[in-house]
Amino acid sequence: MISKSTRLPCATFGLVLAFILTLTPAFADDNTEAGKKLGKLDAGAATSYEKLTPAITKPANPAKPRKLYPQAEIAYKEGLKFLKAEDYYGAINKFERAASFDKKVAKVQRALAMTFHKMGNMGKAYEHITKALEQAGDDLEGQVLRGKIAMSQGKTDEAINAFRTALLCTGAKPEEPQAAYALLSLTILLDLTGHLQASLDLSEKLSGWISEHSDNYVDVKQLKDVILKPQTLYLRRGDLLLRLNLPAKAIKMLNLAYQRDKTGKRAAKTLLKAMSGAKQFDRAEKLLAEMAAEPILQDVVLDQAESLCLADNDASRPLRIWNLFGDKGRGTSALAISLAKAARRVKSNDDAITILESALKSEPDNANLGSELAGVYVKAGLFEKALIYFASVIHGNPAANISIHQGIKELAGAKSAGNLLDTFVNKTDKSPPNKRYAMYYVAGVYARMLGKTDRAITLYASSVKASPNFLPACEELVETCALVKRYDQADKHLQTMDTKGPSAYFTFYLRGKLELARKQSTKAVELFAQSLQLNPKHAPARLNLALSFERNGNNGEASRAFLQAMSLRQDDPDY
Questions:
Q1: Phi/psi of residue 496, nearest 5 degrees
Q2: Is 518 left (phi over 0), alpha (psi -120 to 50) or beta?
Q3: 193 φ, ψ to 5°?
Q4: Which residue has the higher pLDDT, 398 or 427?
Q5: What is 317-331 written as a DSSP string?
Q6: Is residue 186 within 8 Å of residue 200, measured between CB atoms?
Q7: Spatial distance between the Cα atoms of 287 and 294, rounded to a whole number of angstroms
Q8: Is the dihedral of CA 447, 450, 455, 457 positive or negative?
Q9: Could you tell me which CATH class the domain 1-59+156-167+175-272 is placed in?
Q10: Of the N and C termini of the chain, which has fewer Cβ atoms inside 10 Å?
């Protein structure tokens, strides 16, 4: 039975149909129900079109239609001329004059309904189309107009009945554009009201009509759009089949849609879901690899990769999918995290680690990757391995400082790490000299996050001693000393830093931070300014300059420096 509660916002029918086209799955980017887990269908979803209730019977016309008086016929024809010229007020004047002779002539009432509809007066349009169809209901164009008016008034059930009646009219032949229009509108409305099988029946019928009579339909915009993009109907049919729990059958239609336009996100996404639903996992994996080559489909790949991995619990699939993308330089951090999560869910921690480590090589400054990787290490109980790995990352790329901090933060929160710090420091003391600075640095970060500030200072100092130009350790040493007000120790270290070479800007920057910690904001302003003279694109210095101005009460300069820092944030990985 057709629902009595479905109503849509009132509007002209052209806008309403356009609105519906954006809501229904075959014409939308992200509103389909196909993504829902296959399961029990709602009542009425599997009912065929022929078995819909209430039953609709073919309307009848009188054996001898009423004719207009000669004067009325003249007014009627003049009204048609005004209507064609889009002079709607003139048309209404003539049609009402014709109706004044005999209000029961159907064609006059229909003309009035059509004119009021074009003017957007749906109340009057409905009044006149009702009178027209009471006199002669076997009228394809009139029933279609009734459906349009009902839709514009939000009367979805009546619109469905009107279009169903239209398809029973004598003139509803496949070659007739108005019949095809009724079929398209009905297909969409039945989908919206949950009558999936009925909508599918009519979608298949419409496909047949279009293949034979498309030349007849090109003057109707909505039909022309479907003709020019046949993938929309393929997609609609495939989507309906999938929502009817028939994924294997859906694949054929969805693949046709995807092959017609390989940049279509909805077709790509729904096809992958159908393949998973049909348990064609290997085929879906190959399709994912193909889609990865299309930049516009990257979000589809990200969305579906993890779902595919979880659908069949193949423990090797997450890493295999990552290798398809990562080996060709198409891997992204979001995909890596998604696949790593899938690998963890299927108890494949080693593969999760491999995926994340691979991604971190490409994006060493990505804090999310560092955090996720540390999480995997913690879950697997590989605490020392995590610190060793983070040291190797920052040894290769100091820009990884942000991701390292985030990852070590995860480790510091683990309750079962035991004497990890002592064990790791002992290993560091015995490691090759060229690796010690990174390992001491990582140990220092870990100690500081454990609240062992004095130990952290000692480890940072060891890192600086092993590599005086390793700036992340220099900064951590100064910051940590300032934190516990060991200003003299920080000063002593700063005296050893470069003030003339390539890293001089960083020396002035650290001196400024130390003065800011001492609450000497005027001196801090001078030092940050010196730093920025040497490196105007160093966002942290610009941000601290803003803070110094604010501490001085110079809010105008503080705001200006802050905005400049914000504009630099994308260019500075340390920001």
A1: -90, -10
A2: alpha
A3: -90, 10
A4: 427
A5: HHHHHHHHHHTTT--
A6: no
A7: 11
A8: positive
A9: mainly alpha
A10: N
- Measured CA to CA, the distance from residue 483 to residue 520 in angstroms comes to 15
What are the structure tokens assigned to 505, written together? Answer: 């800007």
Contacts with 176 (C-beta within 8 Å, 6 or more apart), sequence order? 140, 216
For residue 139, the tally of other CB atoms under 10 A from its CB is 24
Distance from C-alpha of 56 to C-alpha of 169, rounded to nearest angstrom: 11
Is residue 257 classed as helix, strand or coil in its secondary structure?
A: helix
Determine the Cα–Cα distance for residues 300 and 298; give it in Å rounded to an integer: 5
**Contact at 8 Å (CB) between 282 and 312?**
no
Query: Rounded CA gap, 151 and 160, in Å?
Result: 9
Task: Report the residue count for the chain.
Answer: 575
**Residue reference for tokens 């705001």:** 559
Q: Which two tokens stand for residue 413?
A: 């929160």
pLDDT of residue 41: 74
Q: What is the rounded distance in angstroms from the CA atom of residue 480 to the CA atom of residue 456?
A: 8
The third-level CATH classification (topology) of the domain covering 61-136 is 1.25.40
Helix 140-152 / helix 106-119 crossing angle, nearest 10 deg: 30
27-36, 209-218, 273-282: segment of lowest average pLDDT: 27-36
> Is residue 214 packed enough to be buried (19+ CB in 10 Å), middle (13-18) or exposed (0-12)?
middle
Per-residue pLDDT of 151-205, as tens digits, reads 999 999 999 999 999 999 999 999 999 999 999 999 999 999 999 999 999 999 9
What are the boundaries of each domain within the chain? 1-59+156-167+175-272, 61-136, 280-363
Return the residue matching tokens 């970060």.
Answer: 445
Query: Coil, helix or strand for 245?
Result: coil
Torsion of CA 470, 475, 481, 482, to 10 degrees: 160
- Confidence band (pLDDT; 50, 70, 90) for 399? confident
CB 160 within 8 A of CB 193: yes
